Amino acid sequence: MRVGRVLGVLVGALVATAIVLYLVPSGDYILLPDVAHPVAPLVHVAGAKPAAGPGGVYFVDVFERRASELESLFPWLHSQGTLEPANAIVPPCSNDAQEQRAAIQQMALSQRIAAAVALERLGYKVGIARDGVLVDQVIGGTHAPCKLQSQDRILAVDGTATPTVAKLHAAVQRVRPGQTVTLGVARGAKRLTVSVQTVADPSAPGSALIGVVAEQAARITLPVKVAIDSGNVGGPSAGLAFALEVMQKLGRDVDRGYKVAATGQMELDGTVAPIGGVEQKTYGARKAGVDVFLVPAGDNARDARRYAGGLRVIAVKTFPQALHALATLPRKG
Hints:
6-stranded mixed sheet
């Protein structure tokens, strides 16, 4: 009896400890798969034609949240989850709410770029005015964190206007690593002057870097009304899926009867740029029972194939390449 009571106390203590550890947030984030979702209900295009056939385009997402101490101590509790240190998700001098707002802004921009790329492919005239360089990500270990924020727009370097990414790179290459540059920055409605010490480019030590991942900022005027409602889903990685769906809505047989999941950040020139969370997104595509998964070429495609479990993964570098890859599939249904 006494042994039984002791065991009962120990079990109770272990359960109580586990509950406490589950309630206490850790210094890590956990990435978990979300089942791939059909894009068709989210995309509304003026003059759209009714969908036909058994296929459809799907976008993939990742659940991202603070991990509990229990999940950090025992990561195997989520067999398809990945732990990331908090500073890899939320840079210094930022917080969860700011990063969520930035992610929603990234999603909004990705939707307009996706619509622009798709409509241009269909022969429409799209108005694009490049007006600065958007900070997509601030890189830890440089001097940019706490000086710049995600979604800042860099307008000038040392007084030289930087309307394009190429102009930004050219301006930064005029200084030596370690020198400080003065940036003209738009942060929402505010105009700021920010000084940032440059660092050496690891791949070219004689060249300087500011310490950000940059993308083109632009004012986009669409000739056709396109509305995309992604709710509270953030980030730019659904751009490829949105672009495919816009074409599908305007009568192009993009999916050819297949359930097509797609991930990739669309750029204005039609490039499909790499994304994060590809492991969880591959699991999400598998859970949805899709036939094909379009993924940015390179490391993303390699990692997707690692977790594909028989799902057909197609690596793409550009939007035209993605369309060609689907067009060459034998029609299904």
